[in-house]
Amino acid sequence: MAEEVENQESIDAAAAAVAAATAAATPEDEALALEEEKKAKKKKLIFIIAGVVVILGAVGGYIYNQKTEAARHQAEEEAKKPENILKKQLADRKKNDAPIYIPMDEIVVNLPGRGGEHYLQTKIVLRTADSSTEGKLKEFMPLIRDRVITVLSSRQMQELATVEGKTMMAKEVALVINSIISPQLTAIYVLQQQPSTADIQNLERMNVVPKETSTGQKISVEAANAAAAFWNITEMDLPVQAVLFSTFVMQ
């Protein structure tokens, strides 16, 4: 009995101690504890928001990179299209820059004609408005000289003695050179001119247009008309705008 009384007294003492401790807590202590709890919740919320921002940033960056890559790829594909290449070439040609003159080495060829053998000795100067044309000419110069010699040696001496004959040959030389360094633009230019069958056969012989073009097997009238309607190209739009002769001697 005495032991039970003693245990009860211990319990009562502990309860009294807890009550005393609770009663001893001031309003300031409670406010401080509440403030600490708010700070902990706020810090936790900040961490959560920061995590969400990082995730959203990563997702947004990925989406942006994907869109940028797709746009770049599309732009590259558009730039490779023949019509856009030609548009750029035409825009560059129409800047109306001061002409650039590019001299070629002297050429000597035999000329067919009456009264024995004849030859032509000439120096050609090419007019262009594009500074990059000179680099292209150097790259293809062996082929260019071969084609130019073919054109020069195909003329009769009597024909080159006239202004008209010399002018026509200069145009052929320019066309041959342009077909080598800018085949797409030159092909459309040729289509727009709608030359006669005889003229086309002459171009075929010089490899300016595909073989059998004059028979209509490769270039239709519809194609020529469509090109003429869509593009408006003159000699001034081509890389080599004109062929000039600094010397022109026939014997």
Description:
This protein is α+β, with helices and mostly antiparallel strands. It has two domains: 2-67; 91-250, no CATH class. The chain has nine helices and four strands, in the order αααβββααααααβ. The relative contact order is 0.11. The model has no long low-confidence stretch (mean pLDDT 76).
Question: Characteristics of this structure?
Answer:
251 residues; alpha+beta; 2 domains; four-stranded antiparallel β-sheet
Which helices and strands appear, and what pairs or packs with what?
Layout: H1 2-24, H2 27-80, H3 82-93, E1 100-103, E2 107-111, E3 118-128, H4 132-153, H5 157-160, H6 163-181, H7 183-193, H8 197-205, H9 221-230, E4 242-250
Antiparallel strand pairs: 1-3, 2-3, 3-4
Question: What value does the average pLDDT take?
Answer: 76
| Run of helices and strands | HHHEEEHHHHHHE
Distance between the termini: 153 Å
Describe the main β-sheet briefly: 4 strands, antiparallel
Anisotropy-based shape: rod-shaped
The residue fraction in helices comes out at 55-70%
**Which structural class do the helices and strands define?**
alpha+beta
How many DSSP-defined strands? 4
Segments where pLDDT lies below 50 for 5+ residues?
A: none
> How many structural domains are formed by the residues?
2
Radius of gyration: 44 Å
Number of helices: 9
Tell me the β content.
5-15%
In short:
This protein is α+β, with helices and mostly antiparallel strands and 251 residues long. It contains nine helices and four strands, in the order H-H-H-E-E-E-H-H-H-H-H-H-E.
